[in-house]
Amino acid sequence: VQLQASGGGLVQAGGSLRLSCAASGISVGNYNIRWFRQAQGKERVLVASIRWTSTTSYADSVKGRFTISRDRAKNTVDLQMNSLKSEDTAVYYCAADRLISGATPNVEAMNYWGAGTQVTVSS
Fold first, then answer.
1. What distance in Å separates the CA atoms of residue 32 and residue 55, rounded to the nearest whole number?
2. In contact, 2 and 111? CB cutoff 8 Å
3. What SS3 class is residue 41?
């Protein structure tokens, strides 16, 4: 199983980036796919999720600015990030799990991880 995250880069505050997580070895339609981020010196935190049921959820800090979506045909999950702020600067990781609804989607519970992609927002 491989998850490959891409799309990171340097952007000015207020700008947009679109991250993509390409999966191989699993179907994104059969797993919960999540985006986490880890700022320098801080813990890795959950940003957005799309469950296998298509239900989406977001951290309060990104709600209304980020959108997670899935393309079953391409076997990818994207994270559209708009109105970026300096505090969004972090390494972004995608992860997959098969947790049931109500289970805590913490870092330790993820089954698979992709390598991170750096997002830097300049103010």
1. 9
2. no
3. coil
Question: What is the secondary structure of 19-31 as a DSSP string?
Answer: EEEEEESS-TTTS
Q: Is the pLDDT of residue 24 over 90?
A: yes
41: tokens are 């010196």
Computed over every residue of the chain, the mean pLDDT equals 97
Spatial separation of the C-alpha atoms in residues 103 and 71, rounded to whole Å: 25
Residue 15 near residue 121, CB atoms below 8 Å? yes
Q: State pLDDT tens for residues 65-111.
A: 999 999 999 999 999 999 999 999 999 999 999 999 889 999 999 99
